[in-house]
Amino acid sequence: MIREPLIFEISDKGKKACSLPKLDVPQDENILKNIHARKEIKGFPEVSEVEIVRHFHRISRTNYSVDEGFYPLGSCTMKYNPKINEKIAALHAFQSAHPYAPQDLVQGNLEILKKTEDLLIEIAGMDAFTFQPSAGAQGELVGMMIIRAYHEEQGAPRKIVLIPDSAHGTNPSSAHICGYHVQEIKSNRQGTVDPYYLFRTMTEDVAALMITNPNTLGIFEKEIKKIAKIVHAKGGFIYMDGANMNALVGKSRPGDMDVDVIHLNLHKTFSTPHGGGGPGAGPVGVKKKLEPYLPLPIIERKNGKYRFNFDRPKSIGRVRSFYGNFLVVVKALAYLLSLGPEGLKEISETAVLNSNYIRKNLEGIYHLEYKTATLHECVFSDKYQKKYDVSNVDIAKRLIDFGVHPPTMSFPLVVHGALMIEPTETESKRDLDMFIEAMKNIAEEAKKNPKVLKTAPHDSYVRRLDETAAARHPVLRWSEEKDTKG
Ligand SMILES: Cc1ncc(COP(=O)(O)O)c(C=O)c1O
């Protein structure tokens, strides 16, 4: 494949991408140069319009996306999101709504927020939601701040948050940022929290247990009610990372499992694409006891009108400008209404079926550290391939040659050499079979021709990088000197 040059490398002095009308005021060469031109970059590229368009178009074609093919990146729920929901969110009336518009003029938008909140309350079994957090991790922090505010009001914020080793990686960071000491709970051989161990660990210094359910092994914490009872008995709260909700939606409700606080990732489960750095939403749901602490403002309906309520003395305050990423909520509502309760149930049933189809077909070919039944994702390891000196990285890189995005690697940490596969509910049996075939081929190659794996990918735009050098000595900016030296 021909390497696309940097735009600096196709620059020719004097070329322009636009032609401006003749100046009818005195020219001041220095205005732009002095104020806006970045002094540290010499030799800005000078290119024509067609060169710019072709350059960026060619680069865009080197991206891999959910619209192109199978993307089993575990824990990320890289599913296909119906385009109709994008279209609805792109309607002029939604896009042009001004965040400072008087509440009387945006009653429809407030109604959308309230309706979506009501549906999430129903789906998750909680009592109230806020849409302010813009990501799952921000939702976690907000949830922790709510728990902290409650404990502070009781006299002390407490010191510890318990987190199982199978939790999502953002959980400990969020608890730590909120000022808590994180104490790890080791998973048992089933890959779940052991209630007996928890019972011995739980004290009145513990503010909450933060549990990802299903956890990052794809395993449902069956003992969640027992776990909640132990934590509640010492005055702690259950925080559930509900970002894996596509495994549960329509089937079971975290609120019924005695969860006190939860965040959902609208950009995983509810029709906003995950990844790509786009806007997301990590709404946080709480039980009644914690409702007064929700961020400001909340939306209420009074005398037939929707309004923001800022008069909430116990609130943790604002955590985001305006009311979060409104258009992400529009997409979620469109998705929820188009599916209905039966459609939602089908999401979780299909997500679990697809994952188990892959698991069953690859069991014995790839090593499964935990034999417990799994829901929406399954975690293999490279243990069987290690004897041919083939690692999870080699397997993942080789998958690129088969036109598949690699699974998540080396996570969760409880599985050494992990390959975390989440097919999601939107994949057809044909695509699942294609992936299974590719994985089987790779396992054969590991035995017979491991070199082909060690040097993969072979057909990609960029061949295998020296990841250590790339991380330690990143070259992030073009420089004229380096370029001329070669
Ligand atoms: C289980 C789980 N929790 C939390 C997060 C964090 O969400 P975000 O990336 O929006 O911060 C993710 C992200 O994929 C996740 O999979």
Write structural notes for this entry.
Helix content is 38%, strand content 11%. It is an alpha/beta fold and 486 residues long. A hairpin with a 2-residue loop joins strand 8 (298-302) and strand 9 (305-309). The radius of gyration is 26 Å and the shape is globular. The model has no long low-confidence stretch (mean pLDDT 94). It binds pyridoxal-5'-phosphate (PLP). The site of pyridoxal-5'-phosphate has 14 residues, from helix 6.
Features:
single chain; 486 residues; alpha/beta; 7-stranded mixed sheet; 4-stranded antiparallel sheet; 17 helices; 38% helix; 11% strand; binds pyridoxal-5'-phosphate
Tally of extended strands? 13
Could you say which structural class the secondary elements and strand pairing correspond to?
alpha/beta
Write out the strand line-up for the largest beta sheet, numbering strands in chain order. 1-7-6-5-4-2-3
Percent of residues in beta strands?
5-15%
Rg over C-alpha atoms, rounded to the nearest angstrom: 26 Å
Please count the helical segments: 17
Helical fraction equals 25-40%
Low-confidence stretches: none
What is the approximate shape?
A: globular
**Main β-sheet: number of strands, strand sense, barrel status?**
7 strands, mixed
Q: List cofactors, ions and other ligands.
A: pyridoxal-5'-phosphate
